[in-house]
Design a protein that fits this description.
four-stranded antiparallel sheet; 3 domains; single chain; alpha/beta; methyltransferase; tRNA processing; Rossmann fold; globular; tRNA methyltransferase activity; GMP Synthetase, Chain A, domain 3; transferase; 33% strand
Amino acid sequence: MGVPCVRVPREDGEATRSRLAAADLVDDGYDITAADGNLYVPVTDPSAVPADLDVVEFDPPVREGQTMPADELGSDPSYERIGDVVIVDEDDAERAREIADAIVASDLPVRTVLNRASKVKGEQRVREWDVLAGESTEVVHREYGCEFALDLTEVYFSPRLATERHRVVEQVAEDERAFDMFAGVGPFVVPFAKRGATCVGTDINETAIEYLRENAERNGVADRVTGICGDVREVADDYEGWADRLVMNLPHSADEFLDTAVRLAGAECVLHYYDIQHEDDPFGPGERAIRAAAEPEYDVTVETRHVVRSYAPHEHNVVLDVRLTE
C-alpha cells in the first residue's frame, strides 16, 4: 500500500517541503525521496494539502531506524495526528486498541491516542473520545507559523481545515477589522492578527475563549485580539457597523445568524460564509440566504464559490466569499 506524498519537481522541493512543514503536514516516519526528476514528500493528511499541490501514492522508505505502526500490524492503519496526539476512527473497539498499541510501540512522537466515540454535537460543538493510550487530551497544534493550544475533549477543532483557513488568512490586509462570529480557539483570528488586523472572536464555549486568549498570547498578538464568551447576537450591539471582514464558520446553521452579520458589517465588508449542502446545489441556498438578509441595504457580490471538502455522500462543505457594499 502506497504512502500519500506530494510530488514536485526537484527544484521546487525545498520550498514545498517548508510550506508543508509550516502546516505540520510532513510525515516524519518516511524519508523524502527523489525519483525521476521529482521529489516525493510524505504527508500525514492528504486532504489538508493545498489544492495546487499534486498528491500521489508512492513507496518511500521508512526513515532508517524508525518502527512504524504498520510494522506491528502488518498493514497501514488509518490515523490522524495533531501535534503529539494521534486520532483513530474505529467502530470496532478491539481493532482500535490494536492500532493504539501499535502506534505506541512505534517510533512516532506520540503522547496520547484517542478514538472518536461520537460525532460533533451540541451547542459547544464537541465530541466524545475514548482514550486508548496516555492521559492528557490537551495538545499544541502548529499551522502555518502559528501555535494553537487546545483540549480536544473541550473544544471543536479540525486540522483538516488548515488549508482553507490559510486561503482566507492570505486575503487579510494590515489594519483591517476582522470579526469571527464562532471563533473557537482562534485559528482564524490569531493569524489574522499576525498580518496586522485588529480582531474580535466570540464563542459560547467558555473554554474555547480561554484558549483563544492563551493562543493570542502564545503567538504575540494579544494586543490585537479580543476574545468574548457569549452569543454573538448579544454582543453585536457593541460592534455594530465595525467589521471589514466577517467569518461565519458554523455549517448547518450559519444562516440563522445572517441578520447579526449584517449588523456587524461596515460600509464595505467581506463575508466568509461556510455551509453544508447537497451536491446538486451547493452554493445556491447560502447565496439566497445572504441576499435575503443583506439586500437592499448592501450590494451583494459573490467573489468566490469554493468546495472546501466532501462532508458526506452527496454533501459538500462549501464557502462563499461575499463582498457587502453599503
